[in-house]
Amino acid sequence: MTFLEVRNFGKSFTSHQLGSTRQAVENINFDLDKGQFIGIIGKSGSGKSTILKSIYRTYLPDEGSIYFDSKRFGFIDLFKASERQMIYLRKHEIGYVSQFLNVMPRTTARHLVEQALMEMGAVKETAAIRAEQALTHFDLDPQLWDTFPNTFSGGEKLRLNIAIATVKEPRLLLLDEPTASLDQQSKVKVREVIEKLKASGTTLIGIFHDIEFMENLCDKVFDMKNKSCELVHGG
């Protein structure tokens, strides 16, 4: 059964200062079954991130529809979902990882991960244990666990961001260049978590410039250049 269906999606941006409108993406079509992983490839500026942000509804789309098989709301068109519905979906069903960390500046790294787990129903004691496991997995120095992330390096912020999103084991996980500023060892840690989530049934959409990272990980690849979606053998 189809888990996510993108149909005739298009998005443009208007610059009121310049008095012009630019078409970012148009005529995007692909679908995913539960537990599949699609990688989106294309040159910078081709609209890859626009697709992910529109699924997450950070951007409001102009054309088409994106249907998502929500556990709570059924097969829902995310473009027409209410703000209340989207807040619920972001909190409980759809995760998003970008290159940047956007969190409350006066909240510790440990508390951010614990909070993510408790949002999914974990009791405090369980959340504390699993948070430490996640922070350890992503090689965040224990001395940083009880400090504020606004003092972290770019790589440390990114690893924390991935930890926060993945501990929730979302039904759909959107990955926007999650390994952009990571060293090889950290990339391996990210891949291990992605493989584990995929095996447990999480559906994923990812953007990676590192083609080697995607090898044997994706079931499908969507090419922004020719707007084609192809099955990947061995994904």
UniProtKB/TrEMBL annotation:
Question: Where's it mainly located?
Answer: membrane
ABC transporter domain: from which residue to which, for each copy?
A: 4-234
Keyword annotations for this protein?
Answer: ATP-binding, Cell membrane, Lyase, Membrane, Nucleotide-binding, Translocase, Transport
GO MF assignments: ATP binding; ATP hydrolysis activity; ATPase-coupled transmembrane transporter activity; lyase activity
Where does this one sit in the cell?
Answer: Cell membrane
Pfam families in UniProt: ABC_tran
The membrane topology of this protein is: Peripheral membrane protein
GO CC term, one of those recorded:
ATP-binding cassette (ABC) transporter complex
- Going by the entry's taxonomy, the superkingdom of the source organism is recorded as Bacteria
Task: Give the similarity note.
Answer: Belongs to the ABC transporter superfamily.
Q: Which NCBIfam families match?
A: CP_lyasePhnL (TIGR02324)
Output this protein's name.
Answer: Phosphonate C-P lyase system protein PhnL
Q: Which organism is it from?
A: Gracilibacillus oryzae
Q: What is the lineage of its organism?
A: Bacteria, Bacillati, Bacillota, Bacilli, Bacillales
